[in-house]
Amino acid sequence: MAWSAGQYVKFEDERTRPARDLLAQVPLTRIERAIDLGCGPGNSTELIVERYGAAGVSGLDSDDNMLEAARKRLPGTDFIKADLATWQPEEPVDLLFANAVFQWLPDHLDRLEHLMDGLKPGGALAVQMPDNLTEPSHLMMEETARNGPWSEAFARKSVRRNPLPAPSVYYDRLIGKSERIDIWHTHYNHPLTNAAAIVEWVKGTGLRPYLDHAGPEHRDAFAVAYLARIEKAYPPLADGKVLLRFPRLFLVAVKK
Description:
Oligomer: single chain
Shape: globular
Helix content: 25-40%
Number of strands: 7
Number of helices: 11
Strand order of the largest sheet: 3-2-1-4-5-7-6
Strand content: 15-25%
């Protein structure tokens, strides 16, 4: 599945805030080597560079469009193409940082456990993932998928990603390799212009697999049907805007 850097950065401030909040809890005062996993268009990589300096910081992504945008944004930073489902650092690093990427990997608990082996002692694995599958924004994707001329395609194959495990599951899987683990949830409430803005937001991430699966002949109609449901699920506030509630899971594990 191809991603769109242009669509993603339409809400860059809102998307970057969790990365900023995650980085603030990384307990490293200096690094020799840091890698931004699933770097996207480089907005999260830029935060790491601003904190630690450009030397030793690199980004990694599997999507050519995202990597092109990241290289334009940070021309002095190394960005590499790799698949997080199999990638492992060639030698231990100080920081592995991942902003909103591992939720797409069904076996991400295994991957996080293996990535702990790619850290130096005292190094940190810092991860943030959306935990919003029970929000109307995502429930309406499923409802739309079940109702329309595209429903047969979704009956044959679901594109709904797996829900995240409980925080205790992450703790139990990683504590054997960690001297400490910090896990928390933050519920953001983003004021957006209107319901159509919510659709534009999720077009860059969660809605994209649904639109692709509906097929080119149904893509536009699926988006219209989804918007109609979002308008009902997110009524206007006093100033006409809508409030997008967005829960996210955060984890920082420090290597023994």
